[in-house]
Amino acid sequence: MKRMTSSCAAEIRSLVNVALGNEKADLAIVNGDLVNVYTRELLRGWSVAIKGERIAYVGNDAGHTIGPQTRVIDASGKTLIPGLIDGHTHLNSFYSLGEFLQYAMRGGTTTIVTETMEIAFPLGYEGITEFLESAKDQPIKIFATAPPMVTISPATEARAMDSETLRKLLEREEILGLGETYWASVIRGNDRIIGLIAETMATGKKILVSA
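Below the sequence we write its predicted structure tokens.
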């Protein structure tokens, strides 16, 4: 934990130094038209400077962040927008993940959160972890949720996830929390579902409630 804190502090200092011009950026995208999603303005001729994996500076002149080793991309005539996040999808419904990502990227999507229930029912924990491994190192960041159920049918309950499996999945960085949880199951007092919700809350991760 100390090492992680020290690393984060060093990263913050480096980002500050780049913004001030005391260090140079790894990448600078210059002369683009920046969409301000808060004010709904189009800021003409703005630039973004990046250090490592993070944005260090956004402004109308990034010259002070550019050094001999900085890669510079001239975005004249292009529009810069924040990366879009698809917060709920079912990637397993697509025949080819690679084909789907090509279309998703064109629309500005940089991160996807997917359900895994379609894999969990036939293949269980091993199927979910194999899918997560196959989704690594993609041009888009892919996160997932742990599947509390497959359908509302009692017939699927026998193959549904238990607390032990959930705990193992929640230990993974790519699992952001508990997936589609039908509110009706909670109201009816389904002990397994309520237990899964409690397990997830204990870790501080998220719970998705579906209709």
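The radius of gyration is 22 Å.
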